[in-house]
Model the fold of this input.
Amino acid sequence: MAMDVCEVGPTADGGAAAGSDLPLVSVVIVTFNSAPVLAECLAALPAACGRVPVETLVVDNASSDATLEVARAAGDGIRIVPTGGNVGYAAAINRGIRAASSPASAVLVLNPDIRLRPGAVPAMLELLERPGTGVVAPRLLGADGTLAFSLRREPSVGRAWGEALFGGRAGRWPALGEVVVAPGAYEAPSEADWATGAALLVSRQCLEAVGDWDEAYFLYSEETDFLLRVREAGFRLRLAPAAVGVHLGGESGTSPALWTLLTANRLRLFRSRHGLAASAAFTAAVLTGELLRAASGRAISKAAVKGLLTASQPRLVERAGGRQPGAAATGSRRSRGGRGGRGGRGGRAGARGSRLANRIPAVIPLPVRSAGSPGVSGAPTRAVSATHALPADVAGAPPIVCFSGQDWWYHNRAHSDFQLMTRIAAHRPVLFVNSLAVRMPLPGRSTQPLRRIARKAKSISRGVRTPRADLPDFHVLSPVLLPLYGSRAGRVVNAWLVRFQVARVAKRLGLGAPAYFVTMPTAWDTVRPLARSGLLYNRSDKHSEFTESNGAVVAALEDELLRHSDRVLYVSHELMSRDGAAVADRAHFLGHGVDLGHFNAATAGPAPADIARIPGPRIGFFGGLDDYTVDFDLLEQVAAQIPSASLVLIGDATCSMRRFEAYSNVHWLGFRPYEQIPAYGAAFDVAIMPWLRNEWIRFCNPIKLKEYLALGLPVVTTDYPQIASDRDVVRVAGSPEDFVQLIRDTIADGGPGDPAGRRRHVERDSWDARTEELLELIDRIARETSALGHAGRAGRRAIAGGKPHRAG
Done:
């Protein structure tokens, strides 16, 4: 094709090279069915360029409307470069650059919905000449004339979570948002990590150093990838505030298919530059943000969630109207110095990767770097001590992987999982996997959903750690997870994601064929195919009765664990009796324990100043103030009907406590560290357990009862089945009125028995004794499993056959 170069007529003063026969700038406009907007874009160019010699290339992705007719009608100087198909934005830019005149010192990439204002191009060229500058972006306005926030910060896990939780407000804080929303950043020449690709002037020197735009993206994130490579090549992106353009905006905010592809490409871009662990955290953040917005009724977010979980990246490109281009077909090249080059993958490995990409849902964080690229195996696990050798007789003393019902970083350390596993870690390696949750917290369905998501995100950011110097064999993993248990595809993806992380960390720690101790039933999908020395289901609660869980899904997971576990451990005889037919001789009553050394009034020390100032008598409660366990109406009744006593509440609350502001005798002290709880509890005159009447409480066995009794405190509780064996030392109320009266009686007479007798009641229930009992059981199961054959084969046979994996 002949190079028909034209000089746009002069209408304003401009830069150098006026009157030259050769272009100084090649304008590349990519079109696809752009007839409604292209004419105004082209009409604005002469005034925008002034006396700067330019050539204009319209690179068309096989438009089916009147785009080509509009381009031809604009004048003989417009060159049309057909691509032969809808190959995407990046591929079209590359073809336009290759078709441009080689003498041009810069390429101006434009969307067809951009209208540059007079003098924009000379202003951009002037800034491009500043040393170190590789790319210049204009200041963009929306169609209504308001400032468009076009500057961006580099994507990060923190910013992804910030935007997921706080939306557009996150940009106010650089650590929490990609979008630069400070108006001052657009009023003077400034630098940024990247900018929206609607209008960018790139120097020829920069293009040669950085290489082609990455065609794998098809649409969206290609400019992010290119501009981050620009920075890594030593060039800078600068904003020219004197250069102004009006951007009408595209369809990504309204089209489900385009929004889904935009979201998928955000994930793809991050994975191309980071390891699997960071990529998984980023994926979880992006998906969380879309879920929150889908829950509020945003249709494109609903489509994005469904698309990410069910469709592959190539399929999403097809839905957006294009085809996945290949480097071989287009001649795309990348600079050797550019990060994350995907063009180096070839031969059979490339073919395998292509087939895999065509099958795997876009949400799964597969590595997309070429072999040998840094970070393909993921960032190193942080703060983990050296690998520990297993005991010589692995079958007799297996290491432990615990899938807890709690999170080490924010739950009360009194929970049984913490107490048992830290003690076991004094004898053998333990990998403690923080709670996998039972459901995604969402507005309208969960109490304080953003707070819950934020604290889980903070926990996930810790990765894997060894938190206690005195327990070098105790490791805590906060896996990246997608708690989409109501979706079949979501469960599959989440199980793969968590299993990958657990297996990887266990291998690094040398934990071969461990025994799995599972408290959270949602861990079943993860554990099911893993080789093991035994599987113990710690059925400390009936999680399907949790009010915010997907009851049917969690109940099905509980049933699977009941069927396939080597032993099912109980703390409630009521629940153990209910499961009797399904579990039979695999049931084992372990019961809860108490740390007798910790909960000892004689060594608790003086009352902390804040509770010492509260007048007595003190009616006290310590523990989680959860709206699915604690009867807050009953607490309010106590405060109202016993105004002469102080009601002291210690613990984190999952719901609003403002209702108690009306009572001067209620003192909510909030969360207090586990280490300080005995000193606070010892200052109570009466300890209470005001439980709701529901199925969760029916099958529970609160640890706090033993802690109260170990401190020698008189206790008043609402009724629940497991309290039957403690009625001789505890007062049990059958109604709210009875509860209030029993508290009055206990204040008056000190309650049944005496402090020493209450402590003796729980002396045999120490956590040390429970740990010894549990270890004997784990080792017995491991020996029995070993006798049946290799743990991995036995486990797989049990699951494949659909029958319980029975020991003995």
Summary: The chain is about 35% helix and 15% strand. The CA atoms of residues 57 and 539 lie 68 Å apart. Residues 488-509 form the longest helix (22 residues).
